[in-house]
Inverse folding.
């Protein structure tokens, strides 16, 4: 359950998230396994709604050519690996909301030029100026930074983000 494969029987999605599953009978604890980096055809990784802690493992950089969606909401993650995030250039969807993220949102996020959805909300100790990075995401549709310490000024050229339909 939760494992999706292509016609070549290669794992392309791992959906272990519990946010949309009221029937879920399991909770994941500990850190996100580094072995996930071995699933080099993975397009979707959903580990939201558990008790995972620490940081996203650097081995997830192996998924850079294929990983389009990463859901890690509602866990106990405390930091983001700036180098790792900058390498995941195929990402279109990134949910890191409702964690315990601290420090500054990495500026390497500007490398994610395919990004359509970014949600880092409800990380009360997360800082930075993500608004200044918005120009790097021309396909951005949803951007959520509420209940964080992220600040800055809404850029003058926000009108160029023609796909943006939600800014929270």
């Amino acid at each position: 359950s939760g494992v999706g494969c292509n016609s070549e029987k290669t794992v392309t999605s791992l959906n272990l998230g519990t946010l949309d599953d009221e029937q879920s009978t399991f909770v994941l604890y500990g850190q996100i396994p580094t072995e996930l980096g071995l699933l080099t055809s993975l397009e979707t990784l959903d580990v939201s709604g558990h008790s995972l802690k620490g940081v996203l493992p650097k081995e997830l950089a192996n998924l850079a050519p294929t990983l389009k969606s990463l859901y890690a909401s509602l866990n106990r993650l405390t930091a983001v690996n700036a180098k790792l995030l900058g390498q995941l250039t195929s990402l279109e969807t990134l949910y890191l909301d409702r964690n315990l993220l601290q420090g500054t949102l990495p500026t390497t996020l500007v490398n994610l030029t395919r990004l359509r959805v970014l949600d880092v909300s409800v990380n009360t100790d997360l800082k930075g100026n993500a608004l200044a990075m918005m120009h790097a995401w021309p396909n951005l549709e949803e951007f959520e930074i509420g209940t964080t310490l992220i600040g800055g000024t809404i850029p003058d050229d926000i009108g160029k983000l023609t796909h943006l339909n939600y800014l929270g």
Summary: The first strand starts at residue 3 and ends at 5.
